[in-house]
Write a structure and sequence with these properties.
The protein is α+β, with helices and mostly antiparallel strands. The radius of gyration is 21 Å and the shape is globular. α9 packs across α15 and α12 packs across α14 (about 415-425). It contains 16 helices and 21 strands. About 35% of the residues lie in helices and about 20% in strands. A 7-stranded mixed sheet has the order 15-16-14-13-19-20-21, sandwiched between helices. Strands 3-2-1-5-12-11 form a 6-stranded mixed sheet.
Length: about 475
C-alpha cells in the first residue's frame, strides 16, 4: 500500500445547487458531487431560500465524497475543507442560532425604497467615504432594513446576521464568523479600513453586535464538530478554513489573484472581476469595490443579473426538451449579429452599469425570418455585450488586462468564449482545472492547512492557461 495522499475539499453554496470537489495536493480534482435545490419566489421579484436547504445539500455531497474516498484502494486523508458561497444573501439567526425566516437572496429586488432611504441619508459622498459602494437591492444592508421595517417582530429576534457559506460552516463547526470578501458585499463594511462601518450601522439604526467577527479567508474558522462529523462523515477535528464569497473564490480557482488579470464568469448571473492592489473606487461607483480573499488585495466587479439565466429562460420558452449544447450549436449556424436581432438581458432588473431594478429584457428587431437559433444567438451576444460594459468601465479608470480567464457555463462552451473574445476584443483563456468557486475553496483549504504559504503558490503549481481564443476584429 502506497503513501497516504493529502486532499482538500472545496464547497460552493450556490444559488441553485451546492457542490463539493475533492482535490489532491498536486491540484488534480478527483471527485465532484452536486445537489440541486429550489429558489422560493413568494412574490414577483422576491427570491428566498431556507438555510436548512443548503445544509441538507452539503451533508449529502460531503457524505458522497467521504464514501468515494473509503471505496478507493489508496489511502486519502482530508487535510482541510473550505467554503465559497453566494454573495449578499442574508441569513437571520435567533438566540438559539436557528434561522428566523428564509434567507433573502442576492437577486431579490424588494428593497428599492430601503436603498433610496440609505442613499438619501448618507448621500453619494457619504457612501463613497464609508463603504465605497452604492447601496443596491441585492446587497445585504437594505435587506436588514427591510426586515426591520416590515417584519419588526422577526427583527427583534435577530442575534446574528451571516452569509450562506458562513451558515454551512457554522453547522459544520458550531463557530460563527465571516471573511472580508463576504463582509464587503453587505455594504456595511468599510473596504478601505477593513472593518464594519460604525457610521453606516449607526445611520441605519442597526446593532453592530448582530454582525459576525471578520477573519481572513485563509484562517482556520473552526474544526468539524462531533455533530458535523455525524452529519457529513467528514472526520471530527478536520480544520475548516474560513473561505469567501463565490466571485473572488471563483477568481482564485481560475488564477485571478493579482493585478493585471481579469475574469469573466457566466453562470446564473454574469460578472467581470479585476484584482487591484489598492481599493479603487470609481467616482460613480457603478463598479463594486470589494475585498479579495487575499490580504492587501481588492477587486473591481461588474455584475449582470441574468446571464445564464437568460438562456435558461429562453430554453424554457422555446425548447424545454432541448439541451443547452444543441441550442448553442444551432446558434453557431446563424450569422454574426443574429441577423439584426438584439437581446437586452435585463430579465430581472440590472446592476452594472445601470443599477436599475425596473429594467426589463427585450428582443429588438424581430421579424418573420427569425428562428429559435437566432433567438439563442441574440441571447448569447446580448449577455456578452452587457458584460462588456463592465470591461470598459474598468479600463476607463486604468484597470485592465491583456486577456481574460473565463469560468462558468460561458467558459465551458467554446462558442460562448468566441463571442466574449470578439465582443471584449481580448483573448479569452480557460485553465486546465476549469476553475470555479469550489476549486478555489479547495485552494484556500490547502493554504489554510499550511501546504502553501499564500494563494499565489497553488495558482503557480496547480493551474495552467490553455485553449486561448483570440479576437477576430
Amino acid at each position: 500500500m502506497g503513501a497516504t495522499k493529502a486532499a482538500f475539499i472545496g464547497i460552493d453554496v450556490g444559488t441553485t445547487a451546492v457542490k463539493a470537489v475533492l482535490v489532491l495536493e498536486d491540484g488534480s480534482q478527483i471527485a465532484e458531487y452536486q445537489h440541486e435545490y429550489q429558489v422560493l419566489s413568494p412574490r414577483q421579484n422576491w427570491y428566498e431560500q431556507e438555510p436548512e436547504t443548503w445544509w441538507e445539500g452539503t451533508k449529502l455531497v460531503l457524505a458522497r465524497v467521504v464514501e468515494w474516498i473509503r471505496n478507493r484502494p489508496e489511502k486519502i486523508e482530508i487535510k482541510a475543507l473550505s467554503l465559497a458561497g453566494q454573495m449578499h444573501s442574508s441569513v437571520f439567526l435567533d438566540e438559539d442560532d436557528r434561522a428566523i425566516r428564509p434567507a433573502i437572496l442576492w437577486n431579490d429586488s424588494r428593497t428599492s425604497s430601503q436603498c433610496n432611504e440609505i442613499t438619501d441619508r448618507l448621500g453619494l459622498d457619504g457612501l463613497r467615504d464609508t463603504v465605497g459602494n452604492l447601496v443596491l437591492e441585492g446587497f445585504t444592508a437594505p435587506k436588514i432594513l427591510w426586515v426591520l421595517q416590515n417584519e419588526p417582530r422577526n427583527y427583534e429576534r435577530i442575534r446574528q446576521i451571516i452569509m450562506p457559506k458562513d451558515y454551512v460552516r457554522f453547522r459544520l463547526t458550531g463557530q460563527i464568523a465571516t471573511d472580508p470578501s463576504d463582509a464587503s458585499g453587505t455594504v456595511l463594511y468599510d473596504v478601505r479600513r477593513l472593518r464594519w462601518s460604525e457610521r453606516m450601522v449607526s445611520e441605519l439604526g442597526l446593532d453592530l453586535e448582530l454582525l459576525p467577527t471578520v477573519i481572513p479567508s485563509t484562517d482556520i474558522a473552526g474544526m468539524v464538530s462531533c455533530e458535523g462529523s455525524e452529519a457529513t462523515l467528514v472526520p471530527e477535528g478536520t480544520p475548516v478554513i474560513c473561505g469567501g464569497a463565490d466571485n473572488p473564490m471563483g477568481a482564485i480557482g481560475s488564477g485571478v489573484v493579482s493585478p493585471g488579470t481579469m475574469q469573466s464568469s457566466i453562470g446564473t448571473s454574469g460578472t467581470i472581476l479585476a484584482p487591484t492592489n489598492v481599493p479603487y473606487i470609481e467616482d460613480t461607483m457603478r463598479l463594486h469595490t470589494f475585498c479579495h480573499c487575499i490580504t492587501d488585495t481588492w477587486y473591481l466587479m461588474g455584475t449582470i443579473l441574468s446571464a445564464g439565466n437568460s438562456l435558461k429562460w429562453l430554453k424554457s420558452v422555446i425548447s424545454p426538451n432541448a439541451s443547452y449544447e444543441n441550442m448553442v450549436t444551432g446558434a453557431e449556424t446563424v450569422a454574426l449579429g443574429a441577423e439584426s436581432l438584439i437581446f437586452l438581458p435585463y430579465m430581472s432588473g440590472e446592476r452594472t452599469p445601470h443599477n436599475d431594478p425596473k429594467a426589463r429584457g427585450a428582443f429588438v428587431g424581430l421579424n418573420l425570418s427569425h428562428r429559435p437559433e437566432h433567438l439563442t444567438r441574440a441571447v448569447l451576444e446580448g449577455v456578452c455585450f452587457a458584460l462588456r460594459d463592465s470591461v470598459e468601465l474598468a479600463e476607463s479608470i486604468g484597470v485592465s488586462s491583456e486577456s481574460v480567464i473565463a469560468i462558468g457555463s460561458g467558459g465551458q462552451n467554446r462558442f460562448w468564449r468566441r463571442l466574449q473574445s470578439d465582443i471584449f476584443n481580448l483573448p479569452i483563456h480557460v485553465t486546465n482545472r476549469n476553475g470555479g468557486p469550489s476549486y478555489g475553496a479547495a485552494m484556500v483549504a490547502a493554504v489554510g492547512a499550511g501546504f502553501f504559504n499564500n494563494l499565489q503558490e497553488p495558482v503557480d503549481k496547480w493551474l495552467e492557461l490553455c485553449d486561448v481564443v483570440e479576437p477576430i476584429p
